[in-house]
Amino acid sequence: MMRRIVENSVGHPLKTQKIILQDELHCSACSLEKLIVRPSPVKLQTESPKFLERIQGDICGPIHPSSDPFRYFMILIDASTRWSHVCLLTTRNTAFAKLLAPIIKLRAQFPDHPIKSIRLDNAAEFTSATFNDYSHVHTQNGLAESLIKRLQLIARPLLLRAKLPISVWGHAILHAAIIIRIRPSAYHKQSLQELVLGQVPNISHLKVFGCAVYVPISPPQRTKTGPQRRIGIYVVLILRLL
Fold first, then answer.
1. Model confidence over 6-58: pLDDT tens digits?
2. What is the spatial distance between Cα 180 and Cα 150, in angstroms, rounded to a whole number?
3. CB 60 within 8 A of CB 87
4. In angstroms, rounded to a whole number, what is the distance separating the alpha carbons of residues 201 and 208?
5. pTM assigned to the model
């Protein structure tokens, strides 16, 4: 009886706590809630791919509440440099068009680095006839899923700190993607912008997400004696890598 009281009130205690319980406990609630996917034991590619040789992609959503018309976001990530592209989607049907746009830009800007393979999750949005030549199971797409988790880990504190509604998650995700591009990571000592384009990112115009900004009023709406700016909320940094 005491064990049930402890489990239901404070959860499963750590072994360091002085509570005598059985070593092996089976909790049906934890079994239903937790799902840990082990890494795939098969390594499809042992050598390190070169820049743009392999691109991985995935879609996160639907997310409730929607961010204006957007309910999903799609990510693409280069397996070599960890360059990433993030875009918002209204529906899953627009995934293919959103996928082609950055790929066309990459092929035009880096003609010496052809894209050899695109690895996508085997979700419903990627199982149409258009995507059949590229789909793989999600256990081989861990890099893309890891980026999605990283974006969410950055976006959630941005919203909480700025005290903005959850419906602004689309702007927070895009801002998190920009932050990842312009700062060094554990995988590379350089930022993605410096690694891909050879340019040190200029962060002098970077502001705190959700801070107050003063936006110039358009000339037709200005008056001689009225204010020239109006107050707004900073939610996105416009920075183009491509």
1. 444 344 544 455 555 555 566 665 666 556 666 555 555 555 778 888 899 99
2. 9
3. no
4. 17
5. 0.71
What is the distance, to the nearest Å, from the Cα of residue 173 to the centroid of all Cα atoms in its chain? 6
- Position 174, amino acid: L
The CA distance from 108 to 227, in Å, is 45
Write phi, then psi, for 155 (nearest 5 degrees): -70, -40
